[in-house]
Automatic annotation (TrEMBL):
A single Gene Ontology CC term: cell surface
The keyword ATP-binding belongs to this UniProt entry's keyword annotation: no
Family designation: Belongs to the ligand-gated ion channel (TC 1.A.9) family. 5-hydroxytryptamine receptor (TC 1.A.9.2) subfamily. HTR3B sub-subfamily.
Neurotransmitter-gated ion-channel transmembrane domain mapped to chain residues: 242-324
Subcellular location: Postsynaptic cell membrane
Domain Neurotransmitter-gated ion-channel ligand-binding span(s) in chain numbering: 29-235
Record protein name field: 5-hydroxytryptamine receptor 3B
Superkingdom per UniProt: Eukaryota
Main location: membrane
Length: 437
C-alpha cells in the first residue's frame, strides 16, 4: 500500500516536472532579469550625460467633475501620458524570442519628476504600478489622473460663463539641460480632441490649447508645457430656473404701477412681491456661484431689483402717510381702492355743498318773514364759506402732494423699464457672446 502511494507520488512529481518548465527559463523572465540586473534607477538613463532626456507629454480631458467658484478650484479627470527614452532598457528582440514590449514595475526604473504646478490636491488618482517598455527603450507611462487645480474662475457672466484654466507641467527640479519636454501628438490634435469627453454634464469642453515655454529662474531654466483647458457652462437649466422666473417677478412688480399710487392695496401687493422675491432669492442662493473676488451680473441685477422694490414700497407708504396727515380732521376715508369706495365717489372728497333745492327755498322764505334772521343766515353762509375754503386748501395740498408723488411714480416706472430693458439686453448680449465661442 505504502509502496503504491510512493510510486504514485513519484509519478505525479515526474508529470509536474516535465509539463511546467521552470519560470527562470522563460524568455520574459530572462529579459527582465537581464534588463534590471545592472540597472540603477537613481541614474538618469543616458550614456552621454550632456544629453537631455526628452519627456513627451499628452493630455486628454475626460470629464469636468467639479467647478468650485467659492474656493477657485477645478476638479478634472483626464488621461495623462508620459513617454521617454531609457537608453539602458533596450534589447535585441531576436535574442529574446522576438519580444517587442514588456511591462516593468515603475518603482524599479528611473522616472521623470513631472508635476502639475497648479495642483491643490491630487486626489484618488490610481497608482498604476507598471509601465510598458519596448525593445528600443521607449517607456510609456499611461495613467488616468484626477486633478484638483487652482484656477481663477470668473463668474460675472454667470450662467453664460466660459472658464479658462491652465495646467502647467514641468519637472520639479531638473533644468532643461537635463529634462526637456515635448508634445507626443501635434498640438492641433490635442486642442480638438473631445472624443473621450463626457458630454452630458453641465460643462462643455471647448478646447485644450497647449504651449511650450522655458521658465527662467535663478536656479536654471526649466521647460514647461501649459495646457489651457477652456470649458463653457450649459446655461439652459439656469435660464429656465433662474432668469425667466426673475423676469416674471419683475414684470409682476411692474404691473403694480397700474394701481393708483395712493392706493393702500398697492402696499399689500408690493409687500407680497417683496416676500416672493426674498423667497426666490433664498431658494436660488445655492445655484448662483458666489466668489469673493467678483460678483455675477445676475446678483447685481437681483439687488438692484430689490432696491427698486423697496424704494417704490417706501414711496407708497410715504404717500399714504402724507395723505392721512392732511385728512386728520376725523374723516376716516379708507384709502382702499378696492371695493368701490374709491376716488370715483368724489362727493366724499368734497363736502356736500347745500344744494339749491334743500337750502335755497327756506332762506328765501325767512328773508321775507324775519329780517333779523338774515344776519344769522349770513353768518352761517360765511362759516360755510370758510369751512369750504379750508377744505379747498386741504384738497389743494393733497392735489399737490399727489402730483409730486405721481411724478415720482412715473419716474420709478421708467427706471423699472430701463432696468428691465438693460437686464434683457445684457443677458442677450452675454448669450450671444457665449454662443459665438
Ligand atoms: C540582433 O541579434 C541578431 C542575432 O544575433 C543579429 O543578427 C542582429 O544584428 C542583432 N541586431 C542588432 C540591432 O544588434
Ligand atoms: C518603440 O516605441 C517608439 C514610440 O512609440 C517607436 O518610435 C519605436 O519604433 C518602438 N520600437 C520598436 C522596436 O517597436
Ligand atoms: C486662456 O488663457 C491663456 C493664458 O492664461 C491664453 O493664452 C489663452 O488664449 C486663453 N484661451 C482662451 C480661449 O481665452
Ligand atoms: C461628445 O461630443 C463630441 C461632439 O460634440 C463627440 O465627438 C464625442 O464623441 C462625444 N463624446 C462622448 C463620450 O459621447
Ligand atoms: C357716493 O356716495 C353717496 C353717499 O355717500 C352715495 O349716495 C352715492 O351713491 C355714491 N356714489 C357712487 C358712485 O358710489
Ligand atoms: C367766500 O369767500 C370768498 C373768498 O374765498 C370771498 O371772495 C367771498 O366774498 C365769500 N363769500 C361770502 C358770502 O362770504
Amino acid at each position: 500500500m505504502s509502496l503504491l502511494r510512493s510510486c504514485l507520488l513519484v509519478a505525479a512529481v515526474g508529470i509536474v516536472g516535465t509539463t511546467t518548465p521552470h519560470p527562470r527559463t522563460s524568455s520574459l523572465h530572462r529579459l527582465t532579469r537581464q534588463l534590471l540586473q545592472q540597472y540603477h534607477k537613481d541614474v538618469r538613463p543616458v550614456y552621454n550625460w550632456a544629453e537631455a532626456t526628452t519627456v513627451y507629454l499628452d493630455l486628454c480631458v475626460h470629464a469636468v467633475l467639479d467647478v468650485d467658484v467659492q474656493n477657485q478650484k477645478l476638479k478634472t479627470s483626464m488621461w495623462y501620458r508620459e513617454v521617454w527614452n531609457d537608453e539602458f532598457l533596450s534589447w535585441n528582440s531576436s535574442l529574446f524570442d522576438e519580444i517587442q514590449e514588456i511591462s516593468l514595475p515603475l518603482s524599479a526604473i528611473w522616472a521623470p519628476d513631472i508635476i502639475i504646478n497648479e495642483f491643490v490636491d491630487l486626489e484618488r488618482s490610481p497608482d498604476l504600478p507598471y509601465v510598458y517598455v519596448n525593445s528600443s527603450g521607449t517607456i510609456s507611462n499611461h495613467k488616468p489622473i484626477q486633478v484638483v487645480s487652482a484656477c481663477s474662475l470668473q463668474t460675472y457672466a454667470f450662467p453664460f460663463d466660459i472658464q479658462n484654466c491652465s495646467l502647467t507641467f514641468n519637472s520639479i527640479l531638473h533644468t532643461v539641460e537635463d529634462i526637456d519636454l515635448g508634445f507626443l501628438r501635434s498640438r492641433e490634435d490635442i486642442e480638438n480632441d473631445k472624443r473621450s469627453f463626457l458630454n452630458d454634464t453641465e460643462w462643455q469642453l471647448l478646447s485644450v490649447s497647449s504651449t511650450y515655454h522655458i521658465l527662467r529662474s535663478s536656479t536654471g531654466n526649466i521647460a514647461q508645457i501649459q495646457f489651457n483647458v477652456v470649458i463653457r457652462r450649459r446655461p439652459l437649466a439656469y435660464v429656465v430656473s433662474l432668469l425667466i422666473p426673475s423676469i416674471f417677478l419683475m414684470l409682476v412688480d411692474l404691473g403694480s404701477f397700474y394701481l393708483p399710487p395712493n392706493c393702500r392695496a398697492r402696499i399689500v401687493f408690493k409687500t407680497n412681491v417683496l416676500v416672493g422675491y426674498t423667497v426666490f432669492r433664498v431658494n436660488m442662493s445655492d445655484e448662483v456661484p458666489r466668489s469673493a473676488g467678483c460678483t455675477s451680473l445676475i446678483g447685481v441685477f437681483f439687488t438692484v431689483c430689490m432696491a427698486l422694490l423697496v424704494l417704490s414700497l417706501s414711496k407708497s407708504i410715504l404717500l399714504i402717510k402724507f395723505l392721512y396727515e392732511e385728512r386728520h380732521s376725523g374723516r376716516d376715508r379708507p384709502f382702499l381702492c378696492l371695493g368701490g369706495d374709491s376716488d370715483a365717489n368724489e362727493s366724499r372728497l368734497y363736502p356736500r355743498v347745500p344744494s339749491a333745492e334743500t337750502t335755497g327755498s327756506p332762506v328765501h322764505e325767512e328773508h321775507q318773514v324775519q329780517p333779523d334772521s338774515l344776519k344769522e343766515a349770513w353768518l352761517q353762509l360765511q362759516s360755510i364759506n370758510s369751512s369750504l375754503r379750508t377744505r379747498d386748501q386741504v384738497h389743494q395740498k393733497e392735489v399737490e402732494w399727489l402730483a409730486i408723488l405721481y411724478h415720482f411714480d412715473q419716474l420709478l416706472f421708467r427706471i423699472y423699464l430701463a432696468v428691465l430693458g438693460l437686464y434683457t439686453v445684457t443677458l442677450c448680449t452675454l448669450w450671444a457672446l457665449w454662443s459665438r465661442v
